[in-house]
Write a structure and sequence with these properties.
alpha/beta; Chemotaxis Receptor Methyltransferase Cher, domain 1; Rossmann fold; 2 domains; 7-stranded mixed sheet; 3-stranded antiparallel sheet; 11 helices; globular
Length: 290
């Protein structure tokens, strides 16, 4: 196949490929998104010297490298658009209102567990770690802070563990935070401070895998932002149920500002806090931070 000619995808090929993606990741590609798969996978077919998508589907499902290829394909069809301190008003609600309540509620055990689901290249969990460090200060050593960061993509997790970022990833970061929590590197890059990096544990996880999520136990805070927009209602219900099962009775679930769990789960309800985009278990008492 010529490297300058991209094969078109037939309706049957699209349906088969979209079904494979959905079954393995929960991400839904409707018919009007066929061009997205074509544009993002065309170069991959050229690299593999595969002439059409029927051959590619066979390679993806029957070849000896099918697991690796699915990962490679997934890296190409998903957009990992994120940054440090993304949606700062929501994060301010977490740091100034939610976190003080949880620290008070966990004062006896001094243990706090957070889950950054679909963490991409690590900006979100490291942001949470920074907020916890600056909130607790010298008290941090007295607490057992656990931040689990998961993603389906091994590629972005590897980048997250390296903890090196460009100015673009830090575009929403206050210069004082940049100076305090990052180490300047050559070519304008920055590395997250080692003690902050050690607060986060990265692990590969597919949001379709509810059993694996249960093995992690319960979490006081779950962040899953701008992910469910890629799911259909069936998958959204599965994910909402999984979060309900893994969220502490007095815990908080933060989602993206364009997302909603309305009509998807009966056990989770939105908090009345403005700009929070946050859910709690129905009946959980909402106190005011001092």
């Amino acid at each position: 196949m010529s490297t300058t000619t991209r094969p078109s995808m037939t309706e049957a090929e699209f349906k088969r490929l979209a079904d494979i993606i959905y079954q393995r990741s929960g991400i839904h590609f409707p018919e009007n998104k066929r061009y997205v798969l074509e544009s993002r996978l065309g170069h991959r077919l050229a690299e593999l010297e595969i002439d059409n998508y029927t051959q590619y589907i066979a390679f993806l499902t029957m070849g000896p490298y099918q697991t690796d290829e699915f990962q490679e394909m997934f890296n190409r069809i998903t957009i990992n658009e994120t940054s440090f301190f993304r949606n700062e008003p929501q994060l301010e609600v977490f740091e100034k209102q939610v976190l003080p309540l949880l620290l008070e509620a966990r004062a006896r055990t001094k243990r706090l567990r957070l889950w950054s689901a679909a963490c991409s290249s690590g900006e979100e969990p490291y942001t949470l770690a920074i907020m916890l460090e600056r909130t607790l200060g010298v008290r941090l050593g007295d607490w057992r802070i656990e931040i689990l960061a998961t993603d389906i993509s091994a590629k972005v997790l590897k980048a997250a563990q390296e903890g090196v970022y460009t100015n673009y990833a830090l575009r929403s970061t206050n210069p004082l935070i940049l100076q305090r929590y990052f180490q300047a590197m050559p070519a304008g890059a920055y590395r997250i401070r080692p003690d902050i990096a050690q607060m986060v544990r990265f692990e590969q996880h597919n949001l379709k895998d509810r059993l694996a999520a249960r093995r992690h136990g319960t979490f006081d805070v779950i962040f899953c932002r701008n992910v469910m927009i890629y799911f259909d209602d069936g998958m959204k219900k599965q994910v909402a149920q999984m979060f309900s099962e893994t969220l502490a009775d007095d815990g908080y679930l933060f989602i993206g500002h364009s997302e909603s769990l309305r009509g998807l789960n009966d056990t989770l309800e939105p908090t009345p806090i403005p700009r929070a985009f946050c859910y709690r278990k129905r009946g959980a008492e909402l106190k005011k931070a001092a």
